[in-house]
């Protein structure tokens, strides 16, 4: 693997990235109060974005396409490959990795719970930045799921943002 994969994502305090219906209203209603999160700098540092279908569909609902100027790859077994000329759809992780390597992708932003879980389980994720919102959802789409074995992490830093948000950075130990 010649690429470096990173996740930069927000969760509720109880570890959910979205409500069960996929809504992130709990985050969008609070995020502006968090102050500078480093997201813009992070996004500027990547050349490729890898999303799952749900995250792609959520991004399509934003006022502007959030990945302008980036190569966007979507890992999905159901999304129509002809759905959007801004993206390339991959049916399997192997096909995605082949494309990333063929394209010479350097720094990849991995987004969405299923995609992050897939990259973690396959040993492809290098770093993880989690911004925690001060809210409990009780149910929803969890950031993490079952893993094939322990995935050790090195904690690099935690910082306090505004409005009760915190952000922690980890390196995945190989």
From TrEMBL:
Tell me which InterPro entries the record gives: DHFR-like_dom_sf, RibDG_C, Riboflavin_Biosynth_HTPR
Q: Which residues fall in a coiled-coil region?
A: none
Superkingdom, according to UniProt?
Answer: Bacteria
Q: Domain Bacterial bifunctional deaminase-reductase C-terminal, which positions?
A: 8-162
**What residue stretch is flagged as signal peptide?**
none
Q: Which Pfam families match?
A: RibD_C
PANTHER family from the UniProt entry = 2,5-DIAMINO-6-RIBOSYLAMINO-4(3H)-PYRIMIDINONE 5'-PHOSPHATE REDUCTASE, DIHYDROFOLATE REDUCTASE FAMILY PROTEIN (AFU_ORTHOLOGUE AFUA_8G06820)
What is the protein name given in its UniProt record? Dihydrofolate reductase
Organism encoding this protein: Kribbella speibonae
Give the lineage: Bacteria, Bacillati, Actinomycetota, Actinomycetes, Propionibacteriales
């Amino acid at each position: 693997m010649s690429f470096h994969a990173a996740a930069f994502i927000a969760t509720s305090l109880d570890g959910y990235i979205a409500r069960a219906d996929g809504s992130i209203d709990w985050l969008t209603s609070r995020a502006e109060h968090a102050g500078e999160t480093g997201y813009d700098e992070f996004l500027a540092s990547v050349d490729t974005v890898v999303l799952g279908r749900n995250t792609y569909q959520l991004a399509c609902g934003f006022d502007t396409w959030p990945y302008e100027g980036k190569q966007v790859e979507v890992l999905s077994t159901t999304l129509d490959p002809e759905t959007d000329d801004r993206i390339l759809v991959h049916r399997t992780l192997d096909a995605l990795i082949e494309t990333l390597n063929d394209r010479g992708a350097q720094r990849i932003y991995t987004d969405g719970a299923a995609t992050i879980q897939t990259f973690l389980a396959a040993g492809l994720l290098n770093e993880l930045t989690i911004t925690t919102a001060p809210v409990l959802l009780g149910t929803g789409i969890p950031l993490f799921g079952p893993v094939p074995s322990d995935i050790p992490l090195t904690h690099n830093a935690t910082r306090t943002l505004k409005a009760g948000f915190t952000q922690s950075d980890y390196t995945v130990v190989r």
